[in-house]
Each structure stands twice: as C-alpha cells, then as structure tokens.
Amino acid sequence: MITPFQKGFLWGGAVAANQCEGAYQKDGKGLSLVDLLPDAAHGRWEALADPKLAFEGNYDFYPSHDSIDFYTHYKEDLALMAEMGFKTFRTSISWPRIFPNGDESEPNEAGLAFYDDLFAECVRLGMEPLVTINHFDTPVELMKKYNGWADRRLVDFYVNYSEVIFKRYKDKVKYWLTFNEINMILHLPFFGGGVDVSGADNPKQLTYQAAHHQLVASAKVTKLAHEINPDFKIGCMLAAGQTYPNTCAPEDVWQAVEKNRENYFFIDVQSRGEYPSYSKRFFEDNNIVLDIKAGDLEVLKAHPVDFVSFSYYSSRLTSADPAVNKETEGNVFATLKNPYLKASEWGWQIDPLGLRTTMNEVYDRYQKPLFVVENGLGAVDTPTETGEINDDYRIDYLEAHVREMGEAIKDGVECWGYTPWGCIDLVSAGSGEMKKRYGFIYVDRDNDGVGTLARSKKASFHWYKDVIATNGAKVYKTTEEDA
What we know:
Blueprint (H helix, E strand, L loop, with lengths): L9 E5 L2 H4 L23 H6 L1 H6 L13 H15 L3 E5 L2 H4 L10 H16 L3 E7 L5 H7 L6 H16 L6 E5 L9 H5 L9 H26 L4 E8 L2 E3 L4 H23 L5 H8 L10 H7 L4 E6 L3 E3 L23 E2 L5 E2 L1 H15 L3 E5 L17 H19 L4 E4 L22 E3 L11 E3 L1 H11 L3 H10 L1
Helix pairs in contact: 4-6, 8-10, 10-13, 14-15
C-alpha cells in the first residue's frame, strides 16, 4: 500500500475534559472556569471577554455541567473509538477534579480514581493516552484568590498537581501536553489563564507576565516528568495556522511576519529554551517589563519540550492597510477573508494546503517531532428519518487535510500522529453549542441540553476506520484513482 505514514503512526482523536465529561460537581470535583459560562444564546462570548459577567451572572443553562456525560459513558465511547482502530486517544485531566480549589496540598482521591479507570480502559483497548495537563480548566478558586496565572504562586500549585498525576499514571500514560493552545492567553486571558485584565493599566503587561509563569511552570514539570519516568514524552501545544500577507506589498509581508511571530512566541520559548530575539523590541515597544525570578531563565533553557503539538483548523490573512484590514469574526484569531478559500458555517476558512505549509514551517523552525492534535470541521449534522448521518462534507475536509499532512511527511517533516478534534460530538469551547459538531460519533443532545445522549455512528466513522486500517493509504489510493 502506498502511504507516507510510518508504521506505528498514532491515528486517533481528541477531546477535552471540560467539553465532554459533565459531572461538574460529582465525586468532589471543584468548579472549572468553563462551569461559569452560559450557552451561546445567553452571552458566552461576552462572559469570556469580561469575567465579571461569568462570576456575577445567573444563567439559565451551563453547557459544561452535563455536557455529553462522558464521565458515565466513557467505556461505551472508548469502545466505539477502538472499533475505529484508534491507536491513541487525546483527552485532558480536569485540574479541579484532582484539586477542587487548585491550591490544596492533598488531591481528591475520587478524581484520581476516575482517570485510573479511564486510562486503564484506553490501555486495555490498545490506545495510547495523550493527556493534556491544563486544557482551559484552571480551577475557579485560583482566579478568585490569585487572579489566576497572573500570580506566581500558580507555578507551585501546577507543579504539585503535575507531580501527583505523573506519579499516579506513570505506567499508563507516556505522552503529555503541558498547556492546551498556550498562545490563547493572549487572545482570551480568562480562558487561557484565569486572568482578568479588565482593570489593568497595561493589560499586555499582565498577560505576558501570566504567560511567563506558564512557561516557567511548563519547563519545571518537563524536568519533573523526566525525573519520574525517563520514558515520558512531554510536548507543548500551539493554536497554529500560518498568517499570509494580503498582497506582495512589503508592508503586508512584514505584518504577516509579526503576526506569525506573535503566534510562535510561546513555542520559541518552550522548544528552544529561551525568549526569542524579537521579544526584546516587542516588550520595549509595549512597555512590558517581566518580573523574571532567579533561576527562571536557567530552567527554561535546561528543560525544553520533547515534541511540538498543535491544532490546525485554518490559515489566516492580514494587511498592513487599516482600510483593508477589517477583520472578520468566525474564530478567536480574526482574519481577512481569503478570496481563494471556502469557509465553514462558522466562518472558519478551509485551507488544507495550509496544514502542509504550517507543518513545514514549524518543523523547519524547531526540528522537533510534530503531533497534529486537533483538526476538523465544525458543522450542523442532521440525522435522516432512519437515523443516518451522512457527513460527506466532513469526510471531504478531513481527507484533504490528511492528504496534505502526508505530503508534509514526504517533505521530510517528522510527525508522530493525528488526532482530529471532537472525535465524539461535544460542547463547543467558544460558543457553548452542541449543533457545531466535529465528531465521527453523533450524540443525541441539542443546544438546550435536551436529548437521550444516545451515541450513533456517522458516515465519517466508517471512512476514518478505513483510513486507520490502511495507515492512510485509503487517501492516497483515492488520489491515484482520481488522477
């Protein structure tokens, strides 16, 4: 079979605890930031932008409280993923399920026991767990007491939490990610770091100081992980996607350079072990003076990550001309509309070749193995009268992206695996909707939380099963037949 994917390539899928588990206060779990957020119809985006609305609001519906009840259904769901042939399953551990307030000295045993069972089931079914330590679920109490990652003390709380889970699951989990989409803190400080910047004299100063604390924490737990189990592989995680210049005007090209640098800033530190050269001018121009403690730079340098993981949904487009650069909605990362690309129902521009471009750029930049840990198409899926979900549009999207991922590997990029986002339908992080579905598995639940929670297979379920069974050759066979 013709395939660029190496033997042992880790095909799988990805979810996050805060978007699928539900059981938001069961077995001693504390509140996560997302547990304060309403659904799309009641101001979720406004609450994301202004944390006071999240803390003070009394909303009719909180999507994360029940979600798809993966907490109860996980064995059923993992069995379906194993039926597709998953080699890996990416999920996250809910920090407040282990430390309800985030700053306790002793963990919640019931929370630890849940992940014992979850990871044991993954291993039993032949799936490597790929675990994110902090996926947008900083405990609420840490924001209340300390303003989240703006406070240096969160480094120690996070290290303590990481030590507990590393030791507990050292024989079940090999692959770890320190922070999900760590660059998100620049765009949504509340979501990315439990930080309220609304009262800050210099919001960028506060945001980058919080980011520094996360970077130091990431390096410290990378060191700790390798001490606890030298076989651990620790990765960083980036919300990726190249920014293209709108024209070949030098000003547009330079603006794209700056946008891409902003995006890679965190991974430059985590992968190379030091702040990039361009950060000095950026900090000076924005009146940012980081409080860097003794030993911080040394730990960053000594403990870079083992691999670079990232999400990729679309590329972006920018112009240096203010009259042109009227950014569109559709995603956290605003972008001009690219006239050469189609867009999803939510305005995310579809650019499969952009994945190949991004993979080459990231690999050239860091020369470390890559892991594509999120990719997919959010769409409205409507079951037929007989219950079938014919999501050919999703198959087309994923097939094109898998093909370009294979081309990047043929270009010489080392890539360990691929875990499309929301492999089972879950609550959208941004909008809190259920109708924005990504999964191969349909969950009967609507935006109002109504439904049986019954699981059913979409057409894409069978397509992805064939992709995995052929180690990607199905996609290349299609290409040859079409030629």
